[in-house]
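Risk register update: the risk of archive-format incompatibility is retired. Evidence:
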Amino acid sequence: MVWYGGGLIPARFVARENRFMAKVEIGREVALAHIQNTGRLKEILTVGRRVYLIRADNPNRKTRYTVILADIEGTLVSVDSGVVNRMLHEYLADKKFPPFSS
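Archived output:
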């Protein structure tokens, strides 16, 4: 499965600043996080929703975090629009994708 290095950081969604930026609360700290999805996500990214972040590796980025998942009533929903491509690449490389495994 596609893993995010360094682990997931739980946070609360506060606001969507623009198409690519969210304001999140990590403990008592309010921070900006990148959203790798230009969709509206209006039903997913709601105020107070638990989200999961990863820490950015690039020190030159505008944000230290990226929003990866949202918790909707116990179901984790990906807001990372690039995850499908990475998953398919990994499954095909490991021959774990059933239609192509033989």
